[in-house]
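Fold these two proteins, one after the other.
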Amino acid sequence: MPVVTLVSNKGGTGKTTLATNLAAALGRRGNTVLVDADPQRSALHWSNVARANGEDFVEVLAAGADIARHGRRLRASHDFVLIDCPPAIDAPQSRAALAACDLALVPVLPSPVDLWATSHIAAAVRRTARGTASVKIRLIVNQLEPRTTLSRVVGGALAELEVPALETRIRRRSVYRNCMLEGRTVYGMGARGRSAVAEIEQLLTEIFSL
């Protein structure tokens, strides 16, 4: 699982927050780099805040002009490569990253509109990644609020979709927002981040089992 791409077709799914925390988790297991291919450069901004605070942060690089070639070069020198794409499946950066990755993760919010749109997103991902026969695609339910009616029906709705979803659900927690503001990951948030760390670790265990 050397190259993982995080893609979505809209903003606000928590894609970059998920990318930085997954990068931190992988960084505890091997040499990891997070490639920021989003023109908004949110991951790079996060890393700049971390550096200014003297935090031990994961390596973050701006994507090169040729993302596919850049990814292959980084694959040779790193154990894990993550690529954070723009919130648009058809963006050139997303298409290039999907063609070069081994696993595509698609964060989806647990709302009716987002779940209905997921089938279209997944189909677009499949079309773009078609050139790489071994690419795996998985949905991740992000910002889930437990003990709500919607949370209880999410599983059934996901079961009807063509692309499988990971069993791990990422909850809506203030610590995820706070760590981005502070230039940290949940691993550096102490007791505040304990539950989120367990969540990310569970997610990573599931990803490794694919």
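Now the second one:
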Amino acid sequence: MIDLTGIIAISGQPGLYKVVAQSKNGIIVEGLADKKRTSISSTAKVSSLEDISMFTTGEDKPVSEIMKSIFDKEKGGACIDAKADDKSVVAYFASVLPDYDKERVYTSNMRKLFTWYNGLQTSGSLKIKEAETTEESAEKKIVKAATEKKAAVKKTATKDTTKAKTSTGVKKTAGVRKTGVA
């Protein structure tokens, strides 16, 4: 699979972006093509490429797996141009993903995928995710669960159970409003 962590598409803006940092009002991203940094508002519609998948006749297939098959077919080179005619785009996509759902995957979706792939390929961001063996991943999960459990125990042990008092020794009543005449 292709490693797409931190790579996003922003609705209404061309190209792909890499998440650099979070700001108070949104996120700071860097364009993969021009390397310019911009701030994106928290109200902007942002899609992570990791979370996008395409419809097939069976289970949905993540974009990273489809990009891996394009990468293997082209041996790391660029794929078909997204501006090619519809028949060649559909034929190329069918050669990459033969069991795609022909009713729910449109030509525009295929074009967008090819644009993303070529953008990642020209910027040098196509990295193949290292496949872990099942034993190593099981070990990592066990270690992670153990450390999370220790952190949860430590967090509950340090909980402050003392009640707050004012300077005169009267207990504070948080959230209670006294009514009446003074």
